[in-house]
Design goal:
Its EC number is 3.6.1.-. This protein has helices at about 20-25, 25-30, 130-145, 160-170, 190-195, 210-215, 265-275, 275-280, 300-305, 310-360; strands spanning about 35-40, 45-50, 55-60, 75-80, 85-90, 95-100, 110-115, 120-125, 145-155, 175-180, 200, 240-245, 250-255. It is of the alpha/beta class. Helix 3 (about 130-145) crosses helix 7 and helix 7 packs across helix 8 (about 275-280).
Length: about 350
């Protein structure tokens, strides 16, 4: 079992997220003389990593993949071959990953961060609240297996933070919500207590992610910029995903602002976000009820008597449809890939038989 070494530039691997389960997966790699490395940042063909002996920049061509869902990503644990030209030779199985539908609208998934324990969703109180975006980010977080936390940022410039807190509480059942201000320091100690292990920051540009990251890190590491007064939007001050050790242990992954948040095969996450709708649905007369005009629909009854907002029901349906369609595209791609493989094998066999026949 691999253990960290002590030196002036070393890291305790446990502070980076290493534990017994990862160590058990690494046994064969250790026997081959490889060392564990946590991926900090991914460039084209190379990665910045952290190892027990310190930072290492390594070649990552061996762990690249044409499928974005399988290629190396910030947060991955990898087996590194040390030496004059360090190289990542294998990725450990992921415990979970933050994924979204690829921005090119293909059936592929894009992995934003791997092996995440907590997801902090930054929601600016200085901009109009976008309920649909909050729900999408929550579904993304829940579906990864991580624990979401909503950080209401910029409370020092908010007109009515109490009202916003009530609205977000209704959007995020069972989720910790912390009202913060990086300017005054309010709520930052509470936020530090509720996030654990590997934490990723998600949210749109202008939500205050970089400012929040600097506050959690205790230093000015991320660049920040002003946002437009009209709509609260800002420039992308974070242009890449990067993993950074936190002062009290654990690591933080900051991400660029997300313009598009496409869901792919995230039905479990959607159901957790809209848990009250799922609870009402259990009382519907028909098990396959679509919650529209069916007799005995408990969901529609909740809408009629004011327990459920019709807008939230519409957003629930939309996210489920989007997730299911993306999953179907992914299944179709895998099926097509399998079909192409079978056809290639058949062609090769036929060519072999023709060659054999000519030799007789």
């Amino acid at each position: 079992m691999y253990s960290s070494r002590s030196s002036s530039s070393s890291f305790e691997l446990s502070a980076l997220g290493w534990d017994d389960s990862f160590a058990a997966l690494f046994v064969e790699h250790a026997a081959a003389g490889l060392v564990p490395a946590r991926v900090v940042r991914v460039d084209r063909g190379r990665c910045d990593t952290l190892t027990a002996s310190g930072p290492v920049r390594a070649d990552s061509a061996a762990v690249a993949s044409p499928d974005p869902a399988r290629s190396v990503c910030t947060g991955d644990w990898a087996a590194l071959r040390p030496g004059q030209q360090p190289e990542l030779v294998a990725l450990l199985p992921r415990r979970g990953a933050i994924t979204r539908a690829s921005s090119d609208r293909t059936s592929h998934q894009q992995v934003l961060a791997a092996n995440v324990d907590s997801v902090v969703i930054a929601v600016s109180l200085a901009a109009p609240l976008n309920a649909g975006r909050v729900e999408r980010l929550l579904a993304l977080a829940w579906d990864s297996g991580a624990t979401p936390v909503v950080a209401l940022t910029k409370a020092d410039v908010a007109d009515d933070p109490g009202t916003a807190l009530a609205v977000v509480t209704a959007l995020a059942p069972g989720v910790d919500i912390v009202t913060t201000s990086a300017t005054t320091g309010a709520g930052l100690d509470v936020l530090s207590e509720v996030v654990t292990g590997t934490t990723v920051l998600l949210g749109p540009s202008g939500a205050g992610k970089s400012t929040l990251a600097n506050a959690l890190l205790g230093r000015e590491h991320m660049g920040t910029s002003e946002v437009r007064a009209g709509d609260g939007k800002g420039r992308h001050t974070t242009v890449h995903r990067e993993l950074l050790p936190l002062p009290g242990g654990g690591v933080l992954i900051d991400t660029p602002g997300l313009r598009g948040i496409g869901l792919q095969d995230a039905a479990d996450g959607v159901e957790l976000v809209f848990s009250e709708i799922e609870a009402y649905a259990r009382d519907c007369t028909f098990r396959d009820c679509e919650h529209r005009s069916e007799p005995g629909c408990a969901v529609q009854e909740a809408v009629v008597d004011g327990r459920l907002d019709v807008g939230r029901l519409d957003r629930y349906r939309k996210l489920l449809r989007e997730s299911e369609r993306a999953a179907a595209r992914g299944n179709a791609r895998e099926s097509s890939k399998g079909s192409r493989t079978k056809k290639a094998i058949t062609r090769d066999l036929r060519a072999t038989y023709r060659f054999r026949d000519r030799q007789r």
